[in-house]
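P.,

For your records, the input lines for the assembly:
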Amino acid sequence: MPDARTLIAIYPGSFDPLTNGHLDIIHRAANLADHLTIAILNNSAKQPLFSVGERLSMIRESTSKIANVEVDSFSGLLVDYAARRSANGIIRGIRAISDYEIELQMALINRRLRPETETLFLMAGEEFSFISSRMIKEIITLGGDVSAFVPPVVLKRLREKLPASR
Amino acid sequence: MPDARTLIAIYPGSFDPLTNGHLDIIHRAANLADHLTIAILNNSAKQPLFSVGERLSMIRESTSKIANVEVDSFSGLLVDYAARRSANGIIRGIRAISDYEIELQMALINRRLRPETETLFLMAGEEFSFISSRMIKEIITLGGDVSAFVPPVVLKRLREKLPASR
Amino acid sequence: MPDARTLIAIYPGSFDPLTNGHLDIIHRAANLADHLTIAILNNSAKQPLFSVGERLSMIRESTSKIANVEVDSFSGLLVDYAARRSANGIIRGIRAISDYEIELQMALINRRLRPETETLFLMAGEEFSFISSRMIKEIITLGGDVSAFVPPVVLKRLREKLPASR
Amino acid sequence: MPDARTLIAIYPGSFDPLTNGHLDIIHRAANLADHLTIAILNNSAKQPLFSVGERLSMIRESTSKIANVEVDSFSGLLVDYAARRSANGIIRGIRAISDYEIELQMALINRRLRPETETLFLMAGEEFSFISSRMIKEIITLGGDVSAFVPPVVLKRLREKLPASR
Amino acid sequence: MPDARTLIAIYPGSFDPLTNGHLDIIHRAANLADHLTIAILNNSAKQPLFSVGERLSMIRESTSKIANVEVDSFSGLLVDYAARRSANGIIRGIRAISDYEIELQMALINRRLRPETETLFLMAGEEFSFISSRMIKEIITLGGDVSAFVPPVVLKRLREKLPASR
Amino acid sequence: MPDARTLIAIYPGSFDPLTNGHLDIIHRAANLADHLTIAILNNSAKQPLFSVGERLSMIRESTSKIANVEVDSFSGLLVDYAARRSANGIIRGIRAISDYEIELQMALINRRLRPETETLFLMAGEEFSFISSRMIKEIITLGGDVSAFVPPVVLKRLREKLPASR
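Structure tokens returned:
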């Protein structure tokens, strides 16, 4: 088990797909934590655009230069996964315009379920405050250009997956 | 300069006085950071109830058992103080019911002024969601009992300072 | 028809399932109202976890010791049900972290539809601020422990209904 | 002490001055409570426009036709006043556009200080959602017409007090 | 292309159905803009209550007396439609109680996608602050009376479409 | 009186001092309105950093290249000033992180006081979402660098006025 003073952090999410906003949080969290695991939620109830395998490979390619970052996937309760990883921190980005209340509610419930793992909120950069995976999928479906909002590998895969997109 | 992977954190505030809500954040942040400085803002524009010296001694007494915590005061810009301390993290508690937007605004502006220091928000425990230093001073002024909301040393000093209080 | 000064109140909801947060509101509202009807919304458009009959029996068992409480179900407009019950109050719990705006919108529209019935908001206890029926179903589906969040009879039925849960 | 099932309510505030929004809440609360005390906060720290005596007389004149309403003033903690009046309810209006969070914070702290007194929120009518005593004083100071926002007696006194107003 | 100082505005929405709140925004926007196009979003992913054709005819009938208003429908990205129409303004109503954050998020993303088209928010009248197309459909489905919330032609069509409604 | 279809707009504020966020709103509003008056509120109750004359000259210098913009000052009610100027539009910037509710409240009350003048909200650019005149004064007082947040003429005058600033 790590020393309590070591920040072993998890950055959970659907990442369907990874956005530049996610990537910004990853870089910043990796500067604070000793070890950061990007943990893709494998939610069988939702129909994702990209499979867990595709998401793993896109995130790995986009974060390959950050030494203390690892990419993984999990199912079940986040706090149970955090316990298996001996993580004492969960990283979440919050955007000024966003599901702020849902985030706080999840942080409170996760703290109640497992007080040993703390949720740490990083403020999303203001230039990313309107970017969400859902928005990106919607824009690309309607023929819009999302090249400014996602990493190159994601853009390439989006164009393969949705040929109608620009 | 510390290795980027070391979390050198500052927990800034007025702490006039320290509450159990502050103390909860201090304990939790000390479990994540390598070193935590509780930094009392010396704001000459405001008339505090307790002098900076009194606040320093009350916080020191209340945190004496936490190894990696230090208490200090500062004036001027927080990010300049963070630079002098080589801190890469600023800890802030956010309460569901609170000045949430002010907190995000300050985090954005601090990030713009000094990107090397990241603001990390911890969710205040729900049992502390209504406690603020201002509320405590107001209740005690009106003759209310605040013993459940502040550490023992603060309660003792409040009673000395405001004899009308219970 | 009751005297206008008699508080005949309805506490409407899905209660799928009843939580400790609901139970707290029920106890507090029963201390204020002359008569309180817990009114289960029979919404044919949603697939509930528990049938209306199961919810009725769980709520009855959990509130059997409160003299002025009755459990019922209804379909159609809430204000029409309130009129049939000659109710002059609708009780709603609001959580600091929640669908606050939806609650206010419904209160305004219900007041427009039937001004004789007033919506009264009680503040959810801070220890219940993160509990919702939806959250509880999600946690138990993912194998989490919800014994601290629901009454014993609900926990028992949840375990029968979802054997995978702890 | 009243039976717990009797709603003995207090509607506290500064009422400097009483607005049509306040009056709407008073009428609605008087339809729900057995007895309603309008309790003027005597806050020595603030410079009011109208003295407590003036406010008492204006509210009495505006509510003289409501049988179960009484007007009073208090200083000190609201919950201590509620205890002296054996009140089990505190009435507060909430406006969609307003100091919502402050209201919830005060409700939580009052509940912690005295659980026997429940805070009940009524939704302000949408036609009053922008009216506050502060706004009214500001408009009248700037020469605006507030006759649609306050009861006749308040308008008359405002014109005597601030001759510049229309 | 119009002179930049000419306000060529689009008021986009689903209008399923048109409400009195929409109509209020249309009248007010038509007083500000040189030309206003009411643009019905043709969203194939959603099951509307009224077809695009039905919505076009109801809006045309309800706005026939406003000289500078035109009704149209579009699919695809709103900013692409705005470009085709050489519009420099998008009109949106915001309600105090509403999806405010979603509105801001869409305005930011539309501005990023096409800076030449500005989003202009008008504040919904407080008497319309609780009206939404979704609410109206829900109320009428439950047998409620919506005659105060929609224009006459919409009420007539709603009664034909949903005979159960009053 | 102007034709109703002409947008004669006022952009009111304290502008103490003008920020890059204000300037962004001015440029965008000038692209929509036929005529835009930047109206400095002369509020005798507040102690400004810059006199009205200084603010007038700084805004004039910063907007001299925009043809349809005029700078003025006013005291009294904004809607009375709007009536004197025959303005049918009031421009306000809203920031995602901000006094949103105050803005809506003022818009509602201004509409009630004078329905002929409409408030139009423009979304502040996300890069300005944390900039306010108050923040800028605070940062410069504490020795921070605000050169990225204000126009050159304002920076020059701030440095003359507050020599301690960088």
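Two observations worth noting. Chain F touches chain E through 27 residues (CB under 8 Å). Chain F has a mean pLDDT of 89.

Regards
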